[in-house]
Amino acid sequence: MKQRLVILSFVLSVAIMAAKFYVYFLSGSTTLLTDALESIINVVAASFAYYSIYLASLPKDLNHPYGHGKIEFFASGLEGVLILLASAYIFLHASQHLYASPALSSLDLGMAVSFVSAAINGLLGYYLVQKGRSSHSPALIADGKHLRLDAYNGILVVVALAITYFTNWFWVDSAASFLFAAFMCWQGIHLIRESVAALMDETNPALFEKVTNWVVSNKKAEWIDLHNLRVQQYGGDLHIDCHLTLPRYWDLSRTHEEIHEFEEMLGKLQETHVEIFVHADPCLDECCNHCTIADCAIRKAAFSKKIEWNKMNLALNQKHFNETLARS
């Protein structure tokens, strides 16, 4: 499904790019050149997005024990770099034509092409972002955001061309290019920042909170404590590891069964693959005052206070002993 969507994006981007360059050569408008250059990036980005989604779908191997999903973050970062390069060229080109009075023509055709392409890119971009979020695909989300950026550019192009067409204020043509070059630069930096953060395994606050809420909503009394929670994203897949404290009087078979149930619970977090590594910790005497197991045969202290599991304390590599913490 994801690959078919990217192919659709590529085909439409090629058709739109050809139409935009055609009206640019007819008109000589710097604003239309801005729009056409943005379409080149769409074509290149869609091509690489297709390859990255294909590579991310490959199974794990000895050289890639966590799979190939992180290529999608690289694709997103490359798209950000391409956007920055295009914005730099647009800024340079617009500055050279700011005080010129070129003979512009066929602006009405340029407005029509820009309006139609903006509508197509806006609808397709919105759809790709929604599908990318539902399938947890960074490459699809980046491609969709870029198409939405191109749609915003198309709206700006139509407005700038209309002003130039009706007033003969030729400086508006270059000024609009400056404005959108700045907007493109911000978008490119944002994409690069997100992709670098993901490649460096920076914690995604929204994703970590989603995992935390899921664990809390499915918590069992036998799960005495949870800590050292780590969540890493590999494209659309997740890798989760944590330390789970269980009753120390359980035998190995019971502990194994409980961990298996815990992993099955986390595996239902999302539709894509979730890989889970759980380190089992035995309970300590200090755990008794927040342990909710009613029929514990070795309890040393009565239950006194429930410890809230939240995104702050679950990330710590420490057991939770009410007001004090001890190393696991």
Automatic annotation (TrEMBL):
InterPro entries, per database record: Cation_efflux, Cation_efflux_CTD, Cation_efflux_CTD_sf, Cation_efflux_TM, Cation_efflux_TMD_sf, CDF_Transporter
Domain of life: Bacteria
SUPFAM superfamilies: Cation efflux protein cytoplasmic domain-like (SSF160240), Cation efflux protein transmembrane domain-like (SSF161111)
Subcellular localization, as worded in the UniProt entry: Membrane
Limits of the Cation efflux protein transmembrane domain: 6-200
Cation efflux protein cytoplasmic domain ranges (all copies): 223-283
Record field: transmembrane: 7-27, 39-59, 71-92, 112-129, 149-168
Protein name from the UniProt record: Cation diffusion facilitator family transporter
Top-level taxonomy: Bacteria, Pseudomonadati, Bacteroidota, Cytophagia, Cytophagales
